[in-house]
Design goal:
Strand content: 5-15%
Distance between the termini: 29 Å
Shape: globular
Oligomer: single chain
CATH architecture of the largest domain: Up-down Bundle
Strand order of the largest sheet: 2-1-3
CATH class of the largest domain: Mainly Alpha
Order of helices and strands: HEEHHEHHHHHH
Bound molecules: iron/sulfur cluster
Number of helices: 9
Largest sheet: 3 strands, antiparallel
CATH topology of the largest domain: de novo design (two linked rop proteins)
Length: 182
């Protein structure tokens, strides 16, 4: 992959942009997901990436947004629970604290997701995080709360199996990462 700033013609296939313009994934790696327009945008699955072009309407048709155009390409080695926990940590840190749903919601979501990453969770925690996201969406002065609410809904909505693997404590990616950090 060649991370960088690219100017391309609007409407080219997203897969072509990733594979050709940006050099593709590391050899042998399989694409899992793409966040198309900055970290707050709803995530696209690999299948959706195959079907979508880089323009506003096409990405909106998959329930996401082109946003800032800041694209995050995620391969099979990344756990989506860990990825969402990273986002929750960032947005809870960035909350200015003025609105209760954002101040409490981003911090609460981060707290629960942090437990989930460490396999300290139940199936109810998946529903809890979804509920926290719903209660933040559209209820605050600025869009920071929505910036976490949208990833919460799409990561869990599209990759629920990975969240369930944390309930079963059998996510190999996170087991390996935790072993390596000890
Ligand atoms: S939504 Fe915006 S204004 Fe409200 S607490 Fe969060 S960062 Fe502050």
């Amino acid at each position: 992959m060649r991370p960088g700033v690219y100017e391309v013609e609007m409407g080219i296939p997203m897969r072509k942009f990733i594979n050709e313009t940006c050099g593709g994934l590391k050899a042998g790696k399989i694409l899992k997901a793409v966040v198309p327009g900055g970290s707050s945008m709803p995530v696209l699955t690999a299948q959706e990436v195959e079907e979508v072009n880089l323009d506003y309407e096409a990405i909106a048709s998959k329930g996401s947004l082109l946003g800032s155009g800041g694209m995050i390409v995620i391969d099979e080695d990344t756990c989506m629970v860990w990825a969402l926990e990273n986002l929750a940590r960032f947005y809870s840190h960035e909350s200015c604290g003025q609105c209760s749903p954002c101040r409490e919601g981003t911090g609460w979501a981060y707290k629960v997701l942090k437990r989930m990453v460490h396999f300290d969770c139940t199936a109810e925690d998946i529903e809890l995080v979804l509920d926290i996201g719903k209660k933040m969406a559209g209820k605050t002065i600025c869009v920071l709360a929505d910036s976490l609410a949208m990833p919460i809904a799409s990561y869990i909505g599209k990759f629920r199996a990975e969240f369930e693997s944390h309930v079963r404590k059998d996510c190999v990616r996170c087991q390996k990462r935790m072993e390596a950090s000890h």
